[in-house]
Every structure is written in structure tokens, then in C-alpha cells.
Automatic annotation (TrEMBL):
GO cellular component: cytoplasm
Sorted UniProt keywords: Lipid biosynthesis, Lipid metabolism, Nucleotidyltransferase, Phospholipid biosynthesis, Phospholipid metabolism, Transferase
Residue ranges crossing the lipid bilayer per the database entry: none
Molecular function per GO: ethanolamine-phosphate cytidylyltransferase activity
Region Disordered, annotated ranges: 1-24
Pathway connected to this protein: Phospholipid metabolism; phosphatidylethanolamine biosynthesis; phosphatidylethanolamine from ethanolamine: step 2/3; Lipid metabolism
Class of enzymatic activity (EC top level): transferase
Species assigned in the record: Cyprinus carpio carpio
Descriptive protein name: ethanolamine-phosphate cytidylyltransferase
């Protein structure tokens, strides 16, 4: 049982305004992060959490899709924008940013925008942000500095996208989350094994780690696959620990919430709107339970990974890790549940053939909600499978660029050591 929730977001107070006593509060530190944030996972969320902790207000720039989703503006369209909407020209020219620098995104830009908005540490997003971060961008959005992980992000020609802000001292670094990457998640979908459920390093998963996205010169430490190790500290960092307050409506939902995506966000937002003061509890099923009713190699993300993904959502107040499949009397009474919700997706019977929602239906507190979003984890996996060759090529290209940078840095270090040895002699 992990407490979380939008309560923490709602309780944040504006700073930078005069207080009731007439004393001016401390200046608000505005922080900038950017990225394509494709297949948003707990690694992205952890970066945003760390960035928010470095300041007071977090602005997140999200890159556009470009030609990956057949958006190819003609010269005529570009001229029209230049003449009539000059202010938008800069961002229109970035419509091919991800395509040019990173390869095909899994989600559309509209889906990625909404995913970042739903992340509880984000205060504001900038749609269509440039791929290369400049002082002009930071100044435009009144940001003091930008934050990125301790990996490296390169342009199509191998240049550091944060070079300018680093040189000017307006760059901060946070720790990259080990054990998760879009590369690894895509590989799990294509591999169709269940080894990731328990992180067992078997032959099939080893083959995935050795080959998926591997460049001609070996593995990059940033793109390569590593093992995620859950800790109590990480859960505490993601959870807000807020208790339900008098007058709150306790709403319970349950499921796998695998590859936490925009379909889940839309559903949870709909759940959140069911009451004036909602306290939303999400019950997450164990991996073996999910595999029982979903089959194949589901869940793609194990229970520890899914816990952090759900905790990062601003509409969630609390998470039950390893919730029972049947929503029974003990669970409802323990959490004092007022309402149980489920989406339009199929409800699978329990192991004994009974309806897992029989008890809340008997109490008259069960509600089926339509979030108007039909996106499912199955649809996402299908997107990946249909574009397998593109994704493998993307990962190989990305890793090759990173390996070239690593080699250049190593050569520079070796040269500095040689020069220092000569000077000392």
C-alpha cells in the first residue's frame, strides 16, 4: 500500500508573491527539461522528479513527431506559415526533429503531450520544443537552467544537444534511472519471453541484452539494457504519503496498468472526475496474475516497474502492490471504499470462474466508465511489431553515435594523461 496523489500537487503554493505580512517570499526557481518522452516510463518520471526537486516550477519541452506520422509540410505550407504565422515558424521547422535525430516514436505527439501533463511533478509543458536546447529557449520561458540525465543526447551529426547551455553554466545533471529504457521495453515486446517478470538472466533475455540495438563497436552504457533493482527509498521518493481527508470519496480501481500509457491516463482522469474530492486507490496485480488473464509474455513491465509508473500519475492517491484479483469484502471494508470503477475493457473471471466485481456490484458501488480512449497495451505492442525493423535500426544508430562519443572522450582523456606525464618529466 503506497500513498501518492494529486493532493500533493494541489497543496503546492505559489511563491514569489508578497506574503500577508508584507514580506516578499523567495524568488521562484524555474527549471527546464526537454525530450521526446516517447513511451513514458518511470525513468522519465524519475528525471522529472529530480529536476523539480532542484527548483520550484518545472517547465517541460516536448519535441514533435514530424514525418514519422506522415506529417510532411510542403514548401507551400511553410511559406504560408512564414507569411501569416511567423511566430510559429520556428516550431514548425522542428516538426521533423525526432525523425531526424532519434528515429520513429511509438506514440503521437498529442499522446506524448498528454502523458507529460499527467506527470505529477510537471507544472507546465511547451509543445513543439526544439531538439537542441539553447539559451534563447531558456530565456524565452524564464528558466534559470535546464536539467538532463547523466547520459548524453546527440544530434544527427553527433553533437551534444546541451553544449551551449553547458558552456554558459545553465545546465544541471541528475542521475539516470538504471534498468529501464525505451530500447529495453521495445526489446521485451519483440522477444516474447517472460524472463523480465523476475529479472532472471536466462539465455533468451541475455540474447536480447546482447543484440537488441547493439552497434558495430559494442554497447553504449546509456542505450544498453541493465537490470532494474527496486528499493524502498525509490518508492518513498515517488509516493507522497498523503492520507485520505474527511469528505474525500475513496475510489478503487484495479488492473495491470502495464506500459502505463495515455489510455490509462484518460481512464484515471475520468475516475478522478467522479467526485469533488476524489482519493483514487489503484490496485496492481502481481505479474503471475496478470499473465494468467492476459497470456503471452504479459505484463511487459514487472510489478515493481508498474508501481513506479502509476505512482507518477497526478490522478492517483495510493497504490496497493499485489492487490487481490477479486475485489472482496475485506478490501472494500479495509479501505472504506465508496466507489469501484472499471473501464470498457473486458473483465476476466477469477480462477474459480466467479465475477471479481461481484461484491461491489452487490453493494451498488460499481461503475463502468467510458474514457473515450480505446488505446490498450495490445495496440502499443502491435505498433512496435509492425515497425520492428525501424526500431532496431533506430537503436543501432543511436548506440553507434554514443559509442563514437565515448571513444572520443577516452582519446581526449588519454591525450591529457600523456601531456601531463610529459610536463611532469
Amino acid at each position: 500500500m503506497i500513498r501518492n496523489g494529486s493532493h500533493a500537487v494541489e497543496e503546492e503554493k505559489d511563491q514569489g508573491e508578497p506574503s500577508s505580512s508584507g514580506q516578499k517570499r523567495k524568488r521562484v526557481i524555474r527549471v527546464w527539461c526537454d525530450g521526446c518522452y516517447d513511451m513514458v516510463h518511470y525513468g522519465h518520471s524519475n528525471q522529472l522528479r529530480q529536476a523539480k526537486a532542484m527548483g520550484d516550477y518545472l517547465v517541460v519541452g516536448v519535441h514533435t513527431d514530424g514525418m514519422h506520422h506522415n506529417f510532411r509540410p510542403s514548401r507551400k505550407v511553410t511559406v504560408i506559415y512564414k507569411l501569416k504565422k511567423n511566430a510559429h515558424l520556428f516550431f514548425l521547422s522542428r516538426s521533423e526533429e525526432i525523425a531526424k535525430h532519434k528515429g520513429p516514436p511509438v506514440f503521437t505527439q498529442a499522446e506524448r503531450y498528454k502523458m507529460i501533463r499527467a506527470t505529477k511533478w510537471v507544472d507546465e509543458i511547451v509543445e513543439g520544443a526544439p531538439y537542441v536546447t539553447t539559451l534563447e529557449t531558456l530565456d524565452k520561458y524564464n528558466c534559470d537552467f535546464c536539467v538532463h540525465g547523466d547520459d548524453i543526447t546527440l544530434t544527427v551529426d553527433g553533437k551534444d544537444t546541451y553544449d551551449e547551455v553547458k558552456r554558459m553554466g545553465r545546465y544541471r545533471e541528475c542521475k539516470r534511472t538504471q534498468g529501464v529504457s525505451t530500447t529495453d521495453l521495445v526489446g521485451r515486446m519483440l522477444l516474447l519471453t517472460k524472463s523480465h517478470h523476475s529479472n532472471v538472466d536466462n539465455a533468451d533475455y541475455q540474447l536480447h541484452k546482447d543484440n537488441f540495438g547493439k552497434g558495430p563497436k559494442g554497447h553504449s552504457p546509456w542505450t544498453g539494457v541493465s537490470q532494474f533493482l527496486q528499493t524502498s527509498q525509490k518508492i518513498i521518493q515517488f509516493a507522497s504519503g498523503k492520507e485520505p481527508q474527511p469528505g474525500d470519496t475513496i475510489i478503487y480501481v484495479a488492473g495491470a496498468f502495464d506500459l502505463f500509457h495515455i489510455g490509462h491516463v484518460d481512464f484515471l482522469e475520468t475516475v478522478h472526475k467522479q467526485a469533488e474530492k476524489p482519493y483514487v486507490i489503484v490496485g496492481l496485480h502481481f505479474d503471475q496474475e496478470v499473465n494468467r488473464y492476459k497470456g503471452k509474455n504479459y505484463p511487459i513491465m514487472n510489478i515493481h516497474e508498474r508501481t513506479l509508473s502509476v505512482l507518477a500519475c497526478r490522478y492517483v492517491s495510493e497504490v496497493v502492490i499485489g492487490a487481490p484479483y477479486a475485489v472482496g469484502k475485506d478490501l472494500l471494508d479495509h479501505f472504506k471504499v465508496d466507489l469501484v470503477c472499471h473501464g470498457k475493457t473486458e473483465v476476466f473471471s477469477d480462477t474459480d470462474g466467479t465475477d471479481p466485481y461481484a461484491e461491489p456490484k452487490k453493494r451498488g458501488i460499481f461503475r463502468v466508465l467510458d474514457s473515450s480512449n480505446n488505446l490498450t497495451t495490445d495496440v502499443i505492442v502491435q505498433r512496435i511489431i509492425e515497425n520492428r525493423l525501424q526500431f532496431e535500426a533506430r537503436n543501432q544508430k543511436k548506440e553507434a553515435k554514443e559509442m563514437a562519443v565515448i571513444e572520443a572522450l577516452k582519446n581526449k582523456e588519454d591525450l591529457q594523461k600523456t601531456e601531463a606525464a610529459i610536463t611532469n618529466n
